[in-house]
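Input C-alpha cells:
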C-alpha cells in the first residue's frame, strides 16, 4: 500500500509537522508511541523535507508507522520491507529512505533479507522495534524471545536460542549498529538522527516494550544502561563487545566506513573499463 504525503510549507518544520492526521491504534503503554516521537524529532533535527523522505515497512504493530508520518510511505508485505526499501533507494538515490518493522517481521520471515541488506550496504536506515513477541497476532514467541519464557502459546518456553540482532547485523556488514530504549526518547532521537546521517546501511534495534502481552517488560526501563565505553570503528572490537553484551546496553556500538553500494558498483565498472582499455590497446 502506497500513501502520499501532504505538501509541507517551505519553512523549518517541527517534529509535530512530520506526523500525519492518522491516530495511532497501538495499545496504551506501547513503546512504539515513543519511537514515533523520537523518529519525528530526529527527522526534524535533520531538517529533512517530507517530499524527499520515504518510510517503508512490513507487517506488524510497529509496521503501521508509515501511516502516522507526513512523508511518502509504503506498507509492504510480511518480511519484505528491506527489499522494497533497497530497491527504492537504488532507483531514487536522492531520497532519504528509512525502513521500519518489528522483531518478528525483520528477524523471522525477513531474516534472510536482513543479512543481504547489511552486506550490500545500500544507504538506508533500518529501525527495528523489538518487543520479543508477536504482538499483532496475540503473543506468540518471536526470534528474540528468551527460550524459557513460559506462555499459553508456548508452555515451558520454546527452548530455542534467541536471535542476537546486533551480532548478526555486525557480522553481515552493517555500517552503523546501535541499540536504544523506546522510553529514552532523547537518546533514541539522537541515535536515529546519527544513523540516518551515517552513510551506508544503518541498523538500530529499539527495545520497545509490549506491555499488553509482556507486562514484565515494564522493568526494561530499570535494566537499560549505557555501555562502559564509546562506539568503535573496529568491527573486531565491536564483535568482542557485543558477544559479552547483556542485551540492555544502549547506545551506538559501531560506526563503519565501508563504501556504500553505489560507490562499490561504480568502482567495479571503472575497473572493467580500465581492463577493456588495456586489452584493446
Amino acid at each position: 500500500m502506497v500513501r502520499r504525503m501532504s505538501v509541507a510549507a517551505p519553512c523549518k518544520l517541527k517534529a509535530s509537522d512530520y506526523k500525519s492526521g492518522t491516530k495511532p491504534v497501538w495499545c496504551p503503554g506501547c513503546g512504539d508511541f515513543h519511537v514515533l516521537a523520537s523518529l519525528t524529532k530526529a527527522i526534524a533535527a535533520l531538517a529533512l523535507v517530507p517530499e524527499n523522505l520515504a518510510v517503508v515497512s512490513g507487517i506488524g504493530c510497529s509496521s503501521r508507522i508509515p501511516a502516522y508520518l507526513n512523508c511518502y510511505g509504503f506498507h509492504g508485505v510480511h518480511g519484505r520491507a528491506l527489499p522494497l526499501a533497497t530497491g527504492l533507494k537504488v532507483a531514487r538515490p536522492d531520497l532519504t529512505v528509512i525502513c521500519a518493522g518489528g522483531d518478528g517481521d525483520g528477524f523471522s520471515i525477513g531474516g534472510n533479507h536482513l543479512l543481504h541488506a547489511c552486506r550490500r550496504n545500500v544507504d538506508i536506515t533500518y529501525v527495528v522495534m523489538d518487543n520479543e513477541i508477536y504482538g499483532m497476532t496475540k503473543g506468540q514467541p518471536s526470534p528474540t524471545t528468551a527460550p524459557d519464557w513460559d506462555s499459553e502459546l508456548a508452555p515451558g518456553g520454546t527452548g530455542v536460542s534467541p536471535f542476537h540482532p546486533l551480532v548478526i547485523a555486525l557480522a553481515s556488514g552493517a555500517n552503523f549498529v546501535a541499540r536504544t530504549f523506546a522510553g529514552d526518547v532523547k537518546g533514541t532521537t539522537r541515535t536515529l538522527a546519527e544513523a540516518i546521517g551515517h552513510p551506508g546501511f544503518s541498523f538500530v534495534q529499539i527495545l520497545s516494550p509490549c506491555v499488553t502481552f509482556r507486562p514484565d517488560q515494564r522493568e526494561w526501563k530499570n535494566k537499560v544502561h549505557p555501555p562502559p565505553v564509546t562506539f568503535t570503528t573496529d568491527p573486531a572490537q565491536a564483535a568482542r563487545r557485543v558477544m559479552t553484551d547483556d542485551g540492555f546496553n544502549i547506545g551506538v556500538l559501531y560506526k563503519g566506513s565501508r563504501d556504500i553500494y553505489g560507490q562499490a558498483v561504480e568502482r567495479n565498472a571503472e575497473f572493467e573499463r580500465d581492463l577493456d582499455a588495456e586489452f584493446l590497446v
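The first strand starts at residue 2 and ends at 3. The beta strands are 2-3, 53-57, 72-75, 96-102, 125-130, 176-181, 202-207, 251-255.
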